Amino acid sequence: MTSLDKRPGEPDGRGAIEISGLRKSFGTNEVLRGIDFRVGPGEVVCVIGPSGSGKSTLLRCVNLLEEPTSGSVNVVGVDVTDPDADIDAVRRRIGMVFQSFNLFPHLTALGNVMIAQRKVLKRDKAEAGRIARENLERVGLADKIGSYPAQLSGGQQQRVAIARALAMGPEVMLFDEPTSALDPELVGDVLGVMRGLAEQGMTMLVVTHEMSFAREVADRVVFMDAGAVVEEGPPARVIDDPSHERTRTFLSRVL
Ligand code: ADP
Ligand code: MG
Description:
Radius of gyration: 18 Å
Subcellular location: Cell membrane
Domain ABC transporter: 17-251
Strand content: 15-25%
GO molecular function: ATP binding; ATP hydrolysis activity; ATPase-coupled polar amino acid-transporter activity
Oligomer: single chain
Bound molecules: adenosine-5'-diphosphate, magnesium ion
Organism: Actinomadura soli
Structural class: alpha/beta
Number of strands: 10
Family: Belongs to the ABC transporter superfamily.
Strand order of the largest sheet: 6-7-8-3-9-10
Largest sheet: 6 strands, mixed
Shape: globular
C-alpha cells in the first residue's frame, strides 16, 4: 500500500479534518467567525470565496501555522488545539502546497524532494532518493529530476512542490490556490496531477478559483465570505444552483 492508496473505513478518524467553532482574530480583526465543517477520509472539499474571506487563514489553522483563537481543529485524529498534542508529529502527516512553490533554487528537482525526507524523517539517502523519484514520476516529471527550478516552468515547479509534499507520506493534503500564480496554459497539468491524487483516494482540502476543477473533482464545495461558511454542498448545487445571493454574486465574477 502506498501513501496514495485509499484508506477504507478509518474508524479512528485518521485522514480526516474536523473543524468546529473555529475563530481566529488578528488584534481586533476577527477573520474567522465560527467555522464548522468536516472533510471525511478520501474526500475532496474545495473552498471558494472572495479574496480576504479567510480561506488561507483557515488552511493555516488546520496546519497550525496559525493558532486558533478558539474552537477546535481535529486533524488525522488529533485535536491540534490541545496543548499536549505533538504538533510536529501531526504536521508531518499533513502536506501543504501554496500558491508560491518555494523550491530551493540551488537544488535539483530530486534534491528538493529529498531534503525534508532527509532532515525531518531522517531517511537515508538511498531511500529518500527512491521515494523522490517515485513521486516525481507520479507528477509526470520523471525526465526532470536533474533540473534546477530556474530550468522548469511554473507548472513544473508546482508539480515538484506537490511531489515534495507527497514524498513525506501525508494522510491529508492542503492546497492554497495552487494554480493562481501560473500562466493559464500551465494550469491544466497541475490540476491533472491533483485530479489523479483525488482519484487515488487522497483526502484533500483545496482553496481554488478553478470552478471546473471544483465541479468535476470535489465531493463538496464550501463557499466562504467574511470569515464564515455561507453555504456548502455538492458542487452541482453550490456552483450551479447556489442558495445565497452572496454566492451568486461571487460566482458571477469568477465563472
Ligand atoms: P483569503 O485567503 O480568503 O484571501 P486570508 O485568510 O488571507 O483571506 O485573509 C483574511 C483576512 O485576514 C484579511 O483581512 C487579512 O488581511 C487578514 N490576515 C491574514 N493573515 C494575517 C496576519 N498574519 N496578520 C494580520 N492580519 C492577517
Ligand atoms: Mg488566500
